[in-house]
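Ticket #4471: structure export looks truncated?
Reporter: QA, pipeline team
Priority: medium

Steps to reproduce: submit the single chain below to the structure queue and open the exported record.
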Amino acid sequence: MISADNQQVGIVPLAKGLRMAEEEGYDLVEVAPEADPPVCKLLDYGKYKYEISKKEKDSKKKQHIIVVKEIRFRPRTEEHDFEFKVRHARKFLEQKNKVKFTVQFRGRELAYKEFGEALLEKVISTLSDIAKIEGEKKFEGKFLTMTMVLK
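Actual output as written to the record:
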């Protein structure tokens, strides 16, 4: 058993530990149940739970959640649309998000997969200064996909 001021009391029967906790106005909390014998501590359980929740909130504030943004193209996307979408992708990458580029094929366009690959190569060359490819290009059904992340 450990007292409220972090001093080791020693091995104490359960009834005596509960009585000591009640006399001092604390709760008897089991902190290491795997130990032999189990370790208990005298502390204010409400305050203990509050401190744990504060630590969790602080750790959540400090972490950055990576979001995957998707940008879709068609094999025959015009130059202005391409530049507009790549500009958005650059903004997403600067915000430390992943960007998934998807080329969607419809009907007879599937016969011309090289147009989609050429489009993705153009994206790679345009964004190569700030981003790198994560994984490789994948063809999944009617979609050709590639993911890029900040260097």
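Status: closed, not a bug. The export was complete when the record was re-opened. Leaving a note from the reviewer for reference: The beta strands are 27-32, 39-43, 68-73, 98-104, 131-140, 143-150.
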